[in-house]
Amino acid sequence: MSSLLRSTAAGCNIIRRLQVISAPSSASRALNCYVQSTLGNRFTTIRALSSKETVTITYCDPDGTEHPVEAEIGKHLLDVAHDNNIELEGACGGELACSTCHLVFEQEVYDALPPKTDEEEDMLDLAFQLTETSRLGCQIRVVKEFDGIKVRIPDDGY
Fold first, then answer.
1. Interstrand relation of 102-105 and 66-72 (parallel, antiparallel or unpaired)
2. Residue-level pLDDT at 157
């Protein structure tokens, strides 16, 4: 029992130290530490909180259902969708070789996005329900200005 208490106490000290070094700063924003300890036959994983900056984005399904999620700044919208179990296929894994991560943006958001590459334009030509404000989720990174936006997932025809 005393070894269990020592192990738990040591784990708490490690967590306290990690929380101090992961205080918000540019050097620690990407900190994502895991502390593992064995307690008897149990294997426990404790995740130290990191201070990654996020914004709220709402994905709208073809049926109109809205899914607000916290999106980490710098991540691609395809990855944010997958991280939050949103049905956005991304068959090519974000390699710009398909159009299954097709999203439709509101005009004002679309106007602020970086320009499309020729490769993205070619892939969008294959997308279902293409609009003037269509983009591929694998090509758009989350920025602070996205806080509160809605993106629509078009019906893929199936």
1. unpaired
2. 62
